[in-house]
Structures are given as C-alpha cells and as structure tokens.
Amino acid sequence: MTSVETRPPIIIDEPDDSFVEMIKKTGGPNIQNCYQCGTCSGSCPAGARTNYLVRGIIRKALLGLKEQVISAPELWYCTTCYTCQDRCPQDVRPTDVIKAIRNIAVAEGYMLDNHRKTAAKVVEAGHAVPLDKDMWRKLRESVGLEPVPPNASGNPWAIEEIRKITKKSGFDTLIGYEELRKAAEEKAKKKKE
Question: Of 1, 32, 39, 164, which residue is the least packed, with the fewest Cβ within 10 Å?
C-alpha cells in the first residue's frame, strides 16, 4: 500500500462582499446569473490550450475572492473571442465579466508586463504596433499602401492628445510608463555601445 501525499491546506481569502457589485458596475451586470453549467469553459479556445477556466474565475468572483481573481495570470488568457458569450444560456456575458474584472485588476495594480509594454507603446507612438521602421514603410509602399497607416502613429498631434489623456487619467502612472520608457532608453543605449 502506498501513502497518499498530503498537500498544504488551501488558504481562502476573506471574501470581499463588494466585489460582485464592483464587477456589475464595471461592465459585468449579469454575473449573478451564472449557475456554473460550464458552457463558457467548454467553448473557450484559450481554455482548450491552457489552464484557463472562465467558469472558475466567475465562481471565485461570485464567492468574493477578489484578490485571488485579480492577481491570477489566467485572467489575461481570454482572447475576447466572445464564443462563451454567444453560447451562455444565462446571458451572463462572460467576456464582459472578464473585461470588467481586468479593469478592476489594472486599477489595483495587476497587469501583465506584456500588456504594460503594449500600453506604453500606445502612449509613446499612438498605436500598439508602431510602424517606425523603414522596412515596414517600404513593404507597405511596395503593395500600394501609404507608408504610414491612417492611425495616430502618423499624426503627431494625435499622439500628443493620447499623452495628455493618459496623463490626466493617470493611466501613464498605472502602467508605469516612465519606468518602461527609461528602461527602453537604457536598452537602446547599450545596444549602440
């Protein structure tokens, strides 16, 4: 007979009774319709390839386990394809719930580094994927497109407006824009040396 491994006890956070109301106000008004049927998790393409369970996040949220939910890296696995939303029999609108929880998470300082860097690119260049390389410009021109796409990256005034909005709203501080900018400058400086 083999012995069964014992696991350390799971410590459950003190439930935050206001978490569900926060989610409802932030964009997930139907979260309490969820009866855990699993349609969302069974439909999720991200869940088929990762440990992401939409249902699990919603269940923990309904239990008021705010800290566990907003700090979970899995929260960011959702691709917002809306498959779960289209199939939910209770109109929970799981994608909207996930986006609402993400907004709460970001407001409380939880954000993946790659998302922070992408947000910093928007502040810096007006677009998440700026086409500032000659290679991209030449490629676009070779297929008959304008060298710079018609977005903020080609309009300095628009980039300045984006910077004003992010500064006024505090989004630049939230994503740590200055720290990311300085790190990028250091990296570029070392690359030149």
Answer: 1
Express each pLDDT in 26-56 by its tens digit: 999 999 999 999 999 999 999 888 888 999 9
CA 163, CA 126: separation in Å to the nearest integer?
Answer: 8
Residues in the chain: 193
What's the CA gap between 60 and 54, in Å, rounded? Answer: 10
User: Are residues 27 and 99 in contact, defined by beta-carbon separation less than 8 angstroms?
Assistant: yes
Query: Tokens 């008021």 identify what position?
Result: 64
pLDDT band at residue 9 using 50, 70 and 90 as cut-offs: low
Alpha-helical segments (H) within 32-176: 39-43, 45-49, 54-62, 66-70, 83-87, 94-107, 113-125, 134-142, 156-169, 171-175
Cβ-Cβ contacts under 8 Å for 112 (sequence gap 6 or more): 73, 76
Q: What is the DSSP string of 33-60?
A: G-----HHHHH-HHHHHSS--HHHHHHH
Which phi and psi (to 5°) does residue 180 adopt? -65, -40
pLDDT in tens, 123-153: 988 888 766 678 888 888 999 998 877 788 7
